[in-house]
Design a protein that fits this description.
β4 and β5 (123-124) form a beta hairpin. With 377 residues, this protein is mainly alpha-helical. The strands form four sheets. Strands 1-3-2 form a three-stranded antiparallel sheet, sandwiched between helices. Strands 4-5 form a two-stranded antiparallel ribbon. The chain has a two-stranded antiparallel ribbon with strand order 6-7. The chain starts with a helix and ends in a 6-residue tail after the last strand. The chain has 14 helices and nine strands. The protein binds zinc ion. Zinc ion is lined by residues 288, 290-291, 293, 326, 328-329. Zinc ion binds next to α13.
């Protein structure tokens, strides 16, 4: 029967093979052949993650954070981009859906590395902002990023073998204050040592206009750890750092708050089982320029973005510079970028991508479709 099933899949596809196999069980009316249908999403990386999670739940293969009910374990028969067939008991679709939703982001963050840009001359949380992760998780990623930047001695002459955990804890807020907010009056009000040290670092010959910011972080750390003793008290510094952390945290939390929950939306689309009909097609300026779904987020990536607006300035009029993108396409884009960078491919310089402007397709513009240069991937 196994051979018959495999050849049936090869000839007629998975759905027909499932029908054929199911019919052989019809006599006792308890066919163990189960066939789940999903939506074939426009975002292939996310589609893969979703299928993997579903299959893991069925087969009981361990995924971090997923516990499998022994009773629902089945044997996988096969899968396509929009279906999964298995032998076993039926799984309640809404239970499956909520389980998938609860573990999807864990799986994605386990397999992809969403480094934000914790550089010695700037701090840009970038795609981290767009992910539906908790503040705590994002905070840890930023703290780790700056701990590594400091440890390497980037932009300073000081390398650090170890960054104390207490100091790591305040790094995201400090970085946001120093590189982005620059509202030192608010953060340092009533404090003595931090503003004094800031002044000292800015005036020091060891740093210039560019390096004093990362230098300030390094010099605080050198005094907190006691490797420099020039009158600053580590305990007072620790207390002042804690005050700054509390004052800056609301602004950092606001910065990291995603505008929409991408994982909930992608799971909804996947479980719809078919592409939702375009009942009310959004106006072109309210449409995701990649998939045509409603979108509210303005999209304008920097030079390293796949869809950097500067790249197609000849095609897009100035007023069209900001496009709308939906959270699902934004997440897919982040995963694609991670996948490239993981393989040592520089996004922007080495990567080209073909795309269709759904929003322009809708508005009937002359440049309805376009493709960038050939990929060198
Ligand atoms: Zn989209």
């Amino acid at each position: 029967m196994a051979d018959g099933f495999v050849s049936k899949v090869g000839h007629d596809g998975l759905a027909a093979a499932v029908d054929w196999l199911g019919s052989s069980y019809a006599a006792d009316d308890k066919s163990p052949v189960q066939y789940l249908r999903f939506t074939d999403l426009e975002q292939p990386i996310l589609n893969d993650h979703l299928l993997t999670v579903v299959k893991s739940l069925i087969t009981g293969r361990q995924l971090d954070g997923i516990s499998v009910d022994e009773d629902t374990k089945g044997i996988l028969l096969g899968s396509t981009t929009n279906s999964v067939a298995y032998l076993g008991v039926p799984i309640d679709r809404s239970t499956l859906r909520s389980t998938v939703e609860s573990v999807l982001m864990d799986r994605i963050t386990d397999t992809a590395d969403f480094d934000c840009k914790t550089e010695w001359r700037s701090f840009d949380p970038d795609v981290l902002t767009e992910l539906a992760l908790g503040f705590q998780q994002k905070h840890e990623i930023i703290a780790q990023g700056y701990a590594e930047t400091l440890a390497r001695g980037s932009g300073t002459d000081h390398e650090f073998e170890r960054i104390p955990d207490d100091f790591k804890l305040v790094l995201p807020e400090l970085a946001h204050l120093i590189f982005n907010l620059k509202d030192f009056d608010m953060a340092f009000e009533g404090l003595s040592q931090l503003p004094q040290l800031q002044e000292q670092v800015r005036e020091s010959d060891a740093y210039n206009n560019q390096t004093w910011k990362i230098g300030f972080l390094a010099e605080i750390l050198r005094r907190v750890t006691g490797s420099v003793d020039d009158g600053y008290g580590p305990e007072t510094l620790d207390q002042e750092l804690e005050t700054v952390r509390k004052r800056v945290q609301p602004a950092l939390a606001e910065l990291l708050e995603p505008e929409a929950d991408a994982s909930a939306e992608v799971v909804e689309r996947f479980f719809a089982g078919r592409q939702a009909p375009a009942e009310a097609l959004p106006a072109s300026d309210e449409m995701c320029f990649l998939c045509g779904r409603p979108a509210t987020t303005d999209y304008q990536k920097g030079n390293d973005g796949f869809y950097g607006t500067s790249k197609f300035s000849r095609r897009v009029p100035p007023e069209g510079e900001y496009k709308r993108v939906c959270p699902v396409c934004n997440l897919e884009h982040a995963l694609l970028r991670d996948s490239c960078e993981r393989r040592g491919v520089r996004v922007g310089d080495d990567t080209e991508i073909a795309y269709v402007y759904y929003d322009e397709l809708r508005s009937g513009s002359s440049s309805t479709t376009s493709s960038l240069k050939a990929s060198r991937l």
